[in-house]
Predict the structure of 8-oxo-dGTP pyrophosphatase MutT, NUDIX family.
Amino acid sequence: MSEFTAENFRSRVLDRLDGQSYEPAGDHLLNPEIEDYGEDLDKVRDAAVLIGIVDRGAEASILLTQRTAHLRSHAGQIAFPGGKIDAEDDGPIGAALREAHEEVGLDSDLVEIVGDLGHYYTGSGYRVVPVLATVKPPLILSPNPAEVDEVFEVPLSFLMNPENHQKKSGEFRGKTRYYYAMPFEQRYIWGVTAGILRVLYNRVYA
């Protein structure tokens, strides 16, 4: 079996994450000197994203979106389908499935949930649960133009190769901030999305 099939991903998650407990991951791990991260924030907003591993045979891929340029936050950036957890949602899984349907038209019947990565804290005040799932083609997607410019896939083998994980830095609130970036062809995957992918690599593929 190829190392990067959807079935191999599923087996790895069930083998490595089942019953495991981890310290919360997040932007603060690369930036421990920045105090206003994570659980110390006065108001943390709960959110969930869907890490959808699309079954493409020997070469599975990860479903990603390009956010529209007019959004108030993270405009134009590459992201997983996802968003805030509403009171009506059935927890992080319900929120991730709902958001994936609203943003890109992903039918939840095509999605098999296999686990999650626990909490990932962002510098913008979110406590995100990355929900792990396999997705069965064929996919007939309809991106919501109010939120998503484009939906696309990147090979799992590329994103789970640590040689493609670049550590970058920039100014953030007057201090140097470090973050991961994973450029792929014309796409620039960075920030929280790349950080979550790095956690996925560390826990499932390292």
Summary: The first helix runs from residue 6 to 17. The chain has a mean pLDDT of 89. The longest strand covers residues 45-54. The chain has one domain: 6-205.
